[in-house]
Amino acid sequence: xxxxxxxxxxxxxxxxxxxxxxxxxxxxxxxxxxxxxxxxxxxxxxxxxxxxxxxxxxxxxxxxxxxxxxxxxxxxxxxxxxxx
Length: 84
Known about the structure:
Shape: globular
CATH architecture: Orthogonal Bundle
Order of helices and strands: HHHH
Structural class: mainly alpha
CATH superfamily: SAP domain
CATH class: Mainly Alpha
Number of helices: 4
Number of strands: 0
């Protein structure tokens, strides 16, 4: 049985995909400034960050919120370009 989640904007995105997109946009330094957690600020790696985020719901929520904010900002920029 396939479950769809039409109201979940993160449906279909893995935590790794979200993290890589944030790193691509902000870099480790910028991500560490946006979300001040040790795994982003001290010897960051995708593996250690994923391990921490999977065990820490409050940190994962902050990462997901930042990702959604980033996506919304990019969508607004694209819509503004289309209006020109």
